[in-house]
Amino acid sequence: LKMSWFCLYLPLHLLMATCLCxxxxxxxxxxxxxxxxxxxxxxxxxxxxxxxxxxxxLLKDISKRYYFVLEEGRVLAPFSITVTPCxxxxxxxxxxxxxxxxxxxxxxxxxxxxxxxxxxxMVSTIFSYRGNSVETYMGMSSHSALYLxxxxxxxxxxHITVYLTTDxxxxxxxxxxxxxxxxxxxxxxxxxxxxxxxxxxxVLQHRDSIQYCLLVNEKHNYKSLCAAETxxxxxxxxxxxxxxLSLSPYLLEPQQVMILSNSELSIIxxxxxxxxxxVCMGTKNTYTVPxxxxxxxxxFDVFIVNLLTNASAAYTGTFARTLEEPEPxxxxxxxxxxxxxxxxxxxxKFYSLQYQARHKKIHFTFQLCRGQIRVHITRNGKTVxxxxxxxxxxxxxxxxxxxxxxxxxxxxxxxxxxVKVQASPHFHKPLFPLLPESLKIKSFSxxxxxxxxxxxxxxxxxxxxxxxxxxxxxEDQIWGELQSADRCSGPESRPKxxxxxxxxxxxxxxxxxxxxxxxxxxxxxxxxxxDVYLFGPSGIPVRYHSKVVKTRKKC
Length: 555
Hints:
It is a single chain. By secondary structure, the protein is mainly β. Helices cover 10% and strands 42% of the residues. It is built from seven helices and 37 strands. The strands form nine sheets. Strands 14, 15, 16, 18, 19 and 20 form a six-stranded antiparallel sheet that branches. Strands 2-4-10-6-8 form a five-stranded mixed sheet. GO terms for molecular function: heparin binding. It is found in: Secreted.
């Protein structure tokens, strides 16, 4: 069967293949097999669209081929091909097929014979690349040539994007990078890194449709936005629904960012290799990355993104290590001196107190004033106590002379917390009075009237002074009053009109160490907040837990 008959079965759009086959006599032996293989490659290849970015999925060790030809009538025309690997390195080649020269054969004026050398000269590889960088090939094409692109992944299944254009005069799909595409680190702090980069020429031409996006992670730099997207997806993290297929900030407004919680528009993703964060900042070319961890190496990539086409170009990535967190300031504790510590709940940092023992037995006292606090005590570097504080807490520790104790305090809630701390020898005069088993105030519902309420509280075996205060409040003030109460503050900060009475009492039998008090002169159907203060020998008060009681509306 002559090769000219085989050409009848090729698709009509295989322009160059038709040229190659026209009036050609079948080559013999090895040249015939080589030429038929080339034609088979064309026949089982896909046409590559001109002017459109094409996503191609590659299976491991299975090559994929695409071809393109130019329109008739264009003898020489420029073209460019941009290939973006989205994961592992790939191999890709550009092959060109040219028609053979005509050569008359004696005795046969209707056919031409193609020699083995002619077949070899018809096929040539004009470009080869292996790697995971974004590569662009630019060349001049003849209408009598057909181009074949071969793609191969030898590591694993992956995908790439390919962009072919023969119109190099009316602009580019991808935004332009500046002559110097490097990112400069101009400032490093404990939790921040400041970056700057040169403007893309595309920003000046298409300001409304172009913006910069920054990707921050703790693993490595990414050479393209689709490579970053693939890495995050392969880590098992789910992307937000609106960005299920791409990390590109398509249709997002400048200055907006996105996170998984959707509470703000910044992509902050937790993956196994650390945090991945993306921020889009419009056309600003300087940005300070906040809220980083101290003493941590971060990698920074900037992408210039065309919001209309979703195409992007990558600057040359950089990296920086944040500064080590400074040693926390340590406050010295002195025998018997009370230190009032206020902790910032938002920063979640430790506040450190140091005490050098002048006696073997040491007594630490903590009075929680507001919020929730965690205390951690070490002696010469070894932990001796660690727990959450509640109310008043004592730690009696036994060690050696000149032992060094370090007390670290941290708020365990977002709001501010405060605590009073005292360190003293074991025999030192106690700072706080002897406390009852409970600091709760009890009210008796059956003893309530329109004008009075009866409350009770526990006392101790030690004669002490107790003062009762009352405050009229509204229904919507209850939660705020109870939450904001400073359990370390004494009655000196309260108006004299709120004071009800002061009394002394004790009982050696703890079962009978209970006192009651009926507060009269109240208004019907009204809410009152009652407080009891206990004063010990040192004069420092301990406040019982506030109690809210409502008088009867009708009697």
